[in-house]
Amino acid sequence: MSLKKFIDRAVSPWMQLNGPDDDIVISSRIRLARNLSEFVFPIIATESQRKSAFDTIEQKLKGASYSTLGTFEPVVMSNLSNIEKRVLIEKHLISPNLAENPSYTSVFINQSESVSIMVNEEDHLRIQCLFPGFQLGEAMTLANGVDDWLEDKFDYAFDEGRGYLTSCPTNVGTGLRASVMVHLPALALTQRLNRLAQVINQFGLVIRGIYGEGSEALGNVFQISNQMTLGKSEQDIVEDLRGVVMQLIEQEKLARRDLLANSKIELEDRIYRSYGKLVYSRIMPSKEAATCISDLRLGVGLGIIQNVTKRMLNELMVLTQPGFLQHYFQDQLGPNERDVKRAALIREHLNLEKRQ
C-alpha cells in the first residue's frame, strides 16, 4: 500500500460497501482519544517531547497488523504537500487539526481505509473507525478491538476516578466521540431541521458540518455526535446517539413522503433541474455542486432518478472538494479555475455513468 493509493482514489474501499439506511446515513464513526502515560500531552509538549512520543509510536506501529485489517501504513504529515493533506481531510482520514500542525505528526491507515490512527494530534493517539450506513455498534466493536491491541503496546494515561486522560476536558472519561454523517434534504426543504436541531442539543448531542467542529454543512450533509464523554459509559453514549439518529431517519422518511404526496411536481422539477446543471454546466461553484448533488441523491433515494448510483454520488462528494480537485488535475487552481474544472469533472463522471 502506497501513499499514492490513499491519495488517488476518491472513494475509500469501505465506502463502496452498502450499509443499513445508507440512503440517509452515509457513514458511522467511532473515535477514541488516548494518551501515553510516559509522555507530555502533545498540546503542551516541546518539540523534543513531541519527537520522543512520535518516535516511540512509529517504532511500535510501523508495519504492524491487526486481525483482518491488514498492515497499517504510516503517512507522515511533513512529507505531504498542502493539497495532499487536504485530500486526506476530504476523505475523513485525518482531521484539519492534524494537517495544520505537521510537527512530528502522522497517521497510520489500514488498506481499506476503514481505520486510521492519528499520532500527535490533540492527543498522542486518535483511533478512528468508519463504517458505511448506520452501523454504530459495529464501529464500536472494531474500535474497542483496535484499542485493546494498542493498549498491549502502550501504557495509557488513565485515572481510576476520571477514566482516560485527554488534552480536552470534554474528552476525559471514555475518550469516545461517536458520530454519524447524515443526509437530510427533505427535513431541510420542509424547514423542520432547525426545530429538530434544538431537540438534539437537549440530548447532549451536537450537529456540525461534514468535517466536524467549526466546519460548514454542505449539501444538507451533517455530522451528529456526542459532546461529553465524562460520566457516561461507552454503551450509553452510543445508545443515546443511536436512539436520536433512528428518530431522525424516521423524520427524514416522513418528510420525503410528505414531499412526494403534496409537492411531487415541484420536487421532481427541483431534482431534474439539479441533474441538468450537473450534466451540462460549464462553471460549478462548490456550494452549488453540493446542493445539486444533494438533490440528485434525494432523487436516487426516492427512485426518481434511475441511472445514477449512490457509489457515484459518494465519489462526487469527494472529487468536487477543492483539494481532491487540484490533485486530480495535478495543478494549483484558483477559485474560478476550480469552478470550471469541477463542472468538467462532474460532466465526465455522470455521462460515463449514463453510458454503463
List the helices and strands and how they pair.
Layout lengths: L2 H6 L16 E10 L12 H15 L11 E4 L5 H9 L5 H5 L5 E4 L5 E5 L5 E8 L3 H16 L6 E2 L3 E2 L11 E8 L1 H5 L3 H10 L2 E4 L12 E6 L7 H29 L1 H17 L5 H16 L8 H10 L2 H7 L6 H21 L1
Antiparallel strand pairs: 1-5, 1-8, 2-3, 3-4, 4-5, 6-7, 8-10, 9-10
EC number: 2.7.14.1
InterPro entries: Arg_Kinase, ATP-guanido_PTrfase, ATP-guanido_PTrfase_AS, ATP-guanido_PTrfase_cat, Gln_synth/guanido_kin_cat_dom
Keywords: Allosteric enzyme, ATP-binding, Kinase, Nucleotide-binding, Transferase
Q: What structural keywords apply?
A:
alpha+beta, single chain, eight-stranded antiparallel β-sheet, Creatine Kinase, Chain A, domain 2, 47% helix, 2 domains, 10 strands, 15% strand
Write structural notes for this entry.
- The protein has 356 residues and is of the alpha+beta class.
- It has 2 domains: 4-173, Creatine Kinase, Chain A, domain 2, CATH 3.30.590; 263-352, no CATH class.
- The chain is built from 13 helices and 10 strands.
- It has helices at residues 3-8, 47-61, 82-90, 96-100, 136-151, 185-189, 193-202, 234-262, 264-280, 286-301, 310-319, 322-328, 335-355; strands at 25-34, 73-76, 106-109, 115-119, 125-132, 158-159, 163-164, 176-183, 205-208, 221-226.
- The strands form 2 sheets. An 8-stranded antiparallel beta sheet has the order 2-3-4-5-1-8-10-9, with helices on one face.
- Helix 10 packs antiparallel against helix 11.
- The longest helix has 29 residues, at 234-262.
